[in-house]
Design a protein that fits this description.
The complex is a heterodimer of chains A (80) and B (346).
Chain A (H helix, E strand, L loop, with lengths): L7 E4 L7 H11 L6 E6 L2 H13 L3 E9 L2 E7 L3
Parallel strand pairs in A: 1-2
Antiparallel strand pairs in A: 2-4, 3-4
Chain B lengths: L1 H20 L3 H10 L4 H22 L12 H18 L3 H8 L4 H18 L4 H8 L4 E2 L2 E2 L6 H4 L7 H20 L12 H21 L9 H13 L7 H19 L10 H21 L5 H8 L3 H31 L5
Antiparallel strand pairs in B: 1-2
């Protein structure tokens, strides 16, 4: 359920590492604890690296979903 | 003919493994300094831990006769740093650029074209004198290419380490790597292969590179720079002199990576913004200059050369990491200041 509602959205299609992780971190900095960010990436490496990196930073990754061909969405909750 | 078949098959397996394992050494190098997840570093170190003893054994059995890349302080340092900077701008290492091109990422294709052009400039074009000068300053140990194996000769002149001492040196390096690998945390959010599967498969492919190359009297293992130059030179000049096993490996790698992307559902044409494409092109050219000045890339030095404990390769790989870290730091700063300049979007 939590995966469907989010406070902010970030489309990173066309971006690769390190931009995907850097921009995700910056977007999370704009949020407060408990708020949810939904990130879209277009390659499976970023779909693995971004949640991994954010999770190790202490944020709660709510889900990683394959939306379609070359499209993934990651929902993450700011841990504060 | 055998060379073509073994090259294409090994390349296919290698390309499949690079893609499924997400074996991007640019990400690995960056993660050492900036990230908490070190899965790809572990995959890379596992490749080395498998290759170091395997190659020493093959050498002792007289099946391969490993050459080492020349150790030139300036060429390795400048080439490595430029190569590292280029990798960040190109969005991947050389092997990474090949497997990403194979899954439809046009940014990587543009970087690859830049890499080939940069390579031709450094090896056959206007930058050739720079390369000749830098490579002219090679440091040898007792008349041999420098490696950790013949390093003891510096401390005891006239003493040449036999296989007994070589095994001890290899053992120390492998045990140090093994301790690090055994302390690995559980890998999370894995898409594709876990790090250890990737490490084992690429490790076996790399051993194959040495063995099959040796069959055609080439005393080196996997390389991406050399066959890229050979294929680019063939397309531009029509010369086929440089086409060897590694060229067939590289040609096999592309469909292997394509098949893995297709199986993994990650095959689609992706086009970044024009600005990002230009950045990828510039990064690719810098990679071509740097790798050809340093005498190898993340594969030729970072995997093949380091597996025979070549000091030139360790030096160039360290310089590459330095370039990656410096450029990543700059990218962090620039992205942050750009984000700060815009009104908050959330």
């Amino acid at each position: 359920m939590a995966e469907d509602t989010f406070d902010s959205e970030l489309d990173l299609s066309g971006e690769v590492c390190p931009y995907t992780l850097v921009k995700s971190k910056l977007a999370l900095e704009d949020l407060v604890a408990g708020q949810v960010l939904r990130i879209t990436v277009d390659n499976n490496e970023s779909a693995g690296n971004v949640p991994k990196g954010l999770s190790l930073d202490g944020h709660e990754v709510l889900g990683v979903n394959r939306e379609g061909k070359g499209k993934w969405s990651i929902t993450v909750k700011h841990a504060g | 003919m055998t060379s073509i078949i073994t090259g294409l098959v090994t390349g296919f397996v290698g390309g499949y493994a690079l893609q499924r394992g997400g074996f991007c050494m640019h990400s690995a190098f960056r993660s050492i300094a900036y990230e908490k997840d070190h899965s790809i570093v572990r995959a890379w170190l596992l490749v080395l831990a498998i290759n170091i003893p395997a190659l020493l054994l093959l050498e002792q059995l007289g099946l391969i006769f490993p050459a080492r890349a020349p150790f030139s302080v300036l060429a390795g340092l400048i080439g490595g740093v430029v190569f590292g900077i280029g990798m960040v701008l190109a969005g991947g290492c050389v092997s990474g650029t090949y497997y990403r091109t194979s899954k439809g990422m046009t940014g990587s294709l543009v970087a690859l074209l830049g890499f080939a052009a940069g390579g031709l400039m450094m090896t056959q074009g206007i930058l050739r004198p720079l390369r000749s000068w830098a490579l002219g300053h090679e440091i040898l140990i007792a008349g041999e290419e420098a490696s950790l194996y013949n390093l003891p000769t510096i401390f005891a002149s006239g003493f040449f380490p036999g296989f007994g001492l070589r095994w001890i040196i290899a053992g120390v390096v492998v045990i140090a790597i093994a301790i690090f690998l055994l302390r690995a945390p559980k890998q999370t959010f894995t898409i594709g292969w876990p790090w250890w599967v990737t490490g084992i498969v690429i490790g076996v492919v790399a051993i194959g590179g040495w063995y099959f190359s040796s069959l055609e009297y080439r005393d080196y293992g996997l390389s991406i720079v050399q066959p890229t130059n050979a294929i680019a030179g063939w397309l531009v000049n029509g010369e086929t002199g440089g086409i060897n096993w590694t060229a067939w490996f590289l040609i096999g790698l592309v469909p292997g990576a394509f098949a893995a992307a297709w199986r993994g559902g990650d095959l689609s044409l992706r086009v970044p913004s024009a600005g990002r494409l230009l950045q990828n092109l510039g990064g690719g050219i810098l990679m071509g200059w740097g790798a050809n000045l340093a005498g190898g890339c993340n594969i030729g030095h970072g995997v093949t050369g380091m597996s025979v404990l070549s000091i030139g390769s360790i030096w160039a790989t360290a310089a590459t990491m330095l370039g990656v870290w410096a450029m990543t730091w700059l990218v962090f700063r620039i992205t942050r200041s750009q984000a700060g300049a815009k009104p908050a979007s959330a």
